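Please describe the entry underneath.
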Amino acid sequence: LRFDEKVRVVVFKSEVKGVFCAGADLKERAKMDDAEVGHFVKRLRNLMDEIAALPVPTIAAIDGYALGGGLELALACDLRVAASSAKMGLIETTRGLLPGAGGTQRLPRCVGIGLAKELIFTGRQIDGQQAVSMGLVNHTVPQNNEGDAAYQRALTLAKEILPQAPFAVKMGKLAINRGMEVDIASGMAIEGMCYAQNIPTRDRQEGMAAFREKRPPQFIGK
């Protein structure tokens, strides 16, 4: 996906009705020794980092349970859409654990430190309506009979992104992600570097030409 230039947006969905991702298989985990658990969680953390580092926008379509590592997967995405009936939570403390695949870092960056601490300390599960009110998800929708309402809304969101200049979107994602980790002056410098890379693109020239000619732009990602 990272190297396929035809990919504009990636949507993560589940093929299991009622479940986005239920997290770790604790029966499997119980058979591991301490070293194996540490290795497993490190690999899982690396996977989430790989997802977060995808250059194109990513959307998690949460149509059911997103618990523990399942919510960490959704947090690794850029955008999240949830069915109002979906259940989300970093429930690790209820099992004697703590989030180990990015949850302690991505949740506070998403909803703020106070809310993140409350959700992690209590292991509480929240529904889609609560999640959208605290900024954990971008949109919430009533579930449909097919059980894929969040996926359908995610597709609609993806189709809003598709017509936009691909390279500009990639640079926007990079500037936001890198800029959020530094002070604002350094962030401005990062934005400037990303903007400079976009100036010579054919898509920028096409965008200006389309504006002058009062027609929709035809971006090619170059």
